[in-house]
Amino acid sequence: MIRTVEDFRLVDPALAPVAERVLAGDRLDSDEGLLLATTPDLLGVGRMANLVRERLHGDRTCYNINRHLNPTNVCVASCKLCAFYVPWRQREDGWTYSVEQAVEIAARDVDESVSELHIVGGLHLMRADTRRIEETASFLRNENLKELHACHCTGFAALHALARETPLKETGVGTVLRYP
Questions:
Q1: For residue 45, is pLDDT > 90?
Q2: How far apart are CA 44 and CA 165, in angstroms?
Q3: CATH number assigned to the domain comprising residue 109
Q4: Is this structure's pTM higher than 0.85?
Q5: Which domain range does residue 26 map to?
Q6: d(Cα 117, Cα 111) in Å, to the nearest integer?
Q7: CA angle 22, 177, 40 (to 5 degrees)
Q8: Strands (E), the chain
């Protein structure tokens, strides 16, 4: 049981004031969050996080098993933080799975132990023609989805089609997703 700062067995002495606040049950500020995110003392951070988790949830731990499917590395958004993408203007240098290939990969990688399948990347529906949008929405309708989260970059026409065919949920900056 952790009762003192010493019980956290911190390697980084800069974490001691944060550990005191965690012990006191205080909310941390952004500077303390930055310190936690940049310290090399991952075990110390983990011990502090576990103490907070135990306070909130007791001895219960929840987790999920998910899989990620990246159907393309070509993207229309060109986000600066992504080192993975090939810009749309250079799409011939990238790769994109057909719907059939993506389904085959998902079928191979997802079994009854998987609770979430994340299909991430590309935002191709933003520039897709009506046929591709309708085929995608129709396919997803038949996949027994619990929820579908598509960001605004998916494009209005695609969002409209997906909303008609799937359990589409709002997603965007500031959206908090809660799963049972």
A1: yes
A2: 47
A3: 3.30.750.210
A4: no
A5: 5-57
A6: 10
A7: 40
A8: 66-69, 74-75, 86-87, 116-119, 148-149, 168-169
